[in-house]
Amino acid sequence: MFGQIREAYKVTKKEKPWIGAAMAFTFVAIISIGVLIGSLNDRPIYAAFITLPLALLGSMFLFSFVANRAAYSSIEGVMGAGASVMMAIRRGYTTTPMVAVNKQQDMVHRAVGRAGIVLVGEGSNGVRIMLTEETKKVERFVPGVPVTTLIVGDGEGRVAINKLQRTMKKLPKELSNNQVREVRNRLKAVGGFNMPIPKGPMPKNLRVPKV
What we know:
Elements: H1 2-15, H2 19-40, H3 44-75, H4 81-87, E1 93-101, E2 107-113, E3 116-122, H5 127-141, E4 147-151, H6 164-169, H7 177-190
Parallel strand pairs: 3-4
Antiparallel strand pairs: 1-2, 2-3
């Protein structure tokens, strides 16, 4: 745990050099307020002792908030950042990165959860065509499953990298847990990377999930 905090502090310090001073100021400010209140009741030492955990908590809360923003800033604009953010969702989604990639390094990632299938694109405007193609592919293998497409980045019609997790978590839940498992198993069975569109009718020996 301390190793993770140390690494997080290094990343945050690189993006926000003032974080150490801000944490120290927050700690001292909370302690000072506690001592001041305690002095009014003739118990400054007792008040300082009681305020100490609050000061530590306040400093860590500030660090957590700034570190979160710094982490997103450090990967913003880096290809594959969307996959990293998607895979960091602890519960609710199973992510398969780079199910499609083109020569321009535009890429599409796929996540499966209670909201259905979420396809997230990264790259130039050409990624919109890739999203359309991937939508057709998953609809071919798992018909009837809701498919949501998102594009990471700045600009109209795109989702900022620091809002991607929040956007995915807010999607309405359309599938049960059993249906989610069926969809995952079906997509896993047909492969993930650059999944081809099969020609002709669906093979009879492949069972379509009841979703």
